[in-house]
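Design request, tokens follow.
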């Protein structure tokens, strides 16, 4: 049954993306706020469909810690699950993603129209410059910037070295960091087809002020809070 439920979920998710395709194509004619609202409705649908087919939902903790003003969200990354849920729970946002995601049909065009910040891992120096320049532009435009400091999906219960990009953006711009911990990988495992039923716990941590702190200090504080919280999840 878990296989059939997961299969039904993927079928619906792909069909939903195809149905959204016309809106994705015409999206550039609209100003960004309206374009954003149009395109993220697919994410709303996926979250709803995930609950209906796989009985997988989420619970938020620490919502009072989320500032009303644009901030830099540094999050644990275990699967596509949390990234889709973030579309629903956080204010208008953009993301730092690997450039290869733009190659995915329809989905890649949606990311481009949503002005995602894409980086090429083979050119770290240039990528960091893009994160700072485009990230600051997004923050000043009123958008939250979502960054996964481990750089890739990491299996539930494991960790990788935290990259400096998000903390460097915080140091250069002075915008605060919001750390996020979650256990999405427990239910939507990395590179696994079957989705497990349950409740994903998403924990929003207290903001980490970036002013008068170096990027390394910011990164250490972020990693310490996230990994300590992960032990409880």
């Amino acid at each position: 049954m878990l296989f059939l439920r997961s299969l039904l979920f993927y079928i619906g998710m792909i069909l939903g993306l195809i149905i959204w395709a016309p809106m994705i194509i015409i999206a550039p004619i609209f100003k960004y706020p309206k374009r954003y609202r149009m395109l993220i409705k697919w994410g709303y649908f996926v979250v709803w469909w995930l609950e209906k087919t796989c009985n997988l939902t989420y619970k938020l903790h620490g919502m009072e810690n989320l500032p009303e003003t644009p901030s830099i969200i540094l999050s644990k990354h275990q699967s596509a699950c949390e990234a889709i849920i973030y579309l629903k729970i956080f204010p208008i946002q953009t993301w730092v993603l690997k450039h290869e995601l733009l190659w995915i049909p329809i989905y890649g065009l949606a990311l481009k129209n949503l002005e995602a910040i894409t980086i090429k891992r083979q050119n770290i120096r240039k990528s960091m410059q893009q994160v700072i320049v485009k990230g600051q532009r997004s923050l000043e435009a009123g958008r939250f910037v979502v960054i996964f400091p481990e750089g890739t999906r990491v299996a539930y219960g494991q960790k990788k070295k935290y990259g400096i990009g998000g903390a460097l953006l915080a140091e250069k711009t002075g915008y605060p960091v919001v750390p996020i911990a979650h256990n999405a990988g427990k239910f939507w495992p990395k590179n696994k087809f079957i989705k497990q039923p349950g409740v994903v716990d998403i924990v929003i941590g207290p903001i980490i002020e970036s002013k008068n702190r170096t990027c390394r200090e910011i990164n250490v504080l972020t990693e310490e809070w996230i990994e300590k919280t992960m032990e409880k999840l």
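Comment from the thread starter after seeing the answer: thanks! The radius of gyration is 17 Å.
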